[in-house]
């Protein structure tokens, strides 16, 4: 199924026009709806005491337009990026154009491969490379290993020597082996300590901890608790915090909690380069932080979506077993999977097939909102609680610069408060945690 959307620029209630690309990339109706699961480290010191974990500031002198100073962390060192900011792989949003925009701005863009075939994944990877200002800039691909086609797409990424492979919901030992052949990095998305331990055991270079606030498939624990919990439990493993982060204040908070970077999904989805439909961008810009719904009836895995009549209905009840079986067969047929391969799964792995069937059923609603902008009708859009902090639609480079500059300004203001605090501070009036 190919859906092409061309939306006229619309005036937003916040005084800024919301623009979308003239054409939206292909969206295939598959059972796999890969999202940036932080979807996707226990109590660490506010900032680790080791030199490797202590953020510092550096300025980059390049031939490109002037940029804000960057914050150096273990993630920027590991991935070779300027800023500790990651674009997660959101289906139908994290396209080559948005991925390249984030990497060109100094972050790390993760390409969503859930809706893509192996051939489309290869073409998209090469498209990203063609858009990069520097061929050595880091980027990655996301693979939700539970979903059909994910292993093939991850294999393509290894063949193309993609710098970062972000995995979730599956064992990635074989991917680790493939990455070692060319020095690639494995980023594992987790939502709890058990999954984090398994990821570290399998050789993950870094973890992405997705808190309850996140769009799509966040965990049950908020970022405020999950991030320091995993930072303390796995102090040697760099950590990306996801869920609730959209500005410089959030970046500071993540660093103090023990993270080395933030992933910004909802925030990056509402940028000029994002292919998210204009009407959906506007719906997010005008929504409050409480206007989301979290539940597991939509696509079979606990997820957070923008609150609308359609999403409330979708989250309302689970389908009956016959409906699940029918959806599983339809999803398999759409992906060219023989039905005889589906039947044993229905009989012996009901929970997994249920999840796949739910993913397949959710695809149409997600595409309707993400690509078609139908948030007032049947569309359902993944969105995080930080939508209440999003009030504009900036360009990616401007956004990244703004986040970093705000981060620095907030840190300096906080340091000044400590210096002026009556009676001094615990550090003799010179407390500046990021120096």
TrEMBL record:
Q: Which domain of life is it from?
A: Eukaryota
Molecular function, one GO term: nitronate monooxygenase activity
Point to the regions of Polar residues compositional bias.
52-62
Taxonomic lineage of this organism? Eukaryota, Sar, Stramenopiles, Ochrophyta, Bacillariophyta
What InterPro entries does this protein map onto?
Aldolase_TIM (IPR013785), NMO (IPR004136)
Q: What is this protein called?
A: Nitronate monooxygenase domain-containing protein
Q: Does the keyword Flavoprotein apply?
A: yes
Residue ranges of region Disordered?
47-71
Organism equals Pseudo-nitzschia multistriata
Keywords from UniProt, A to Z, are: Flavoprotein, FMN, Oxidoreductase
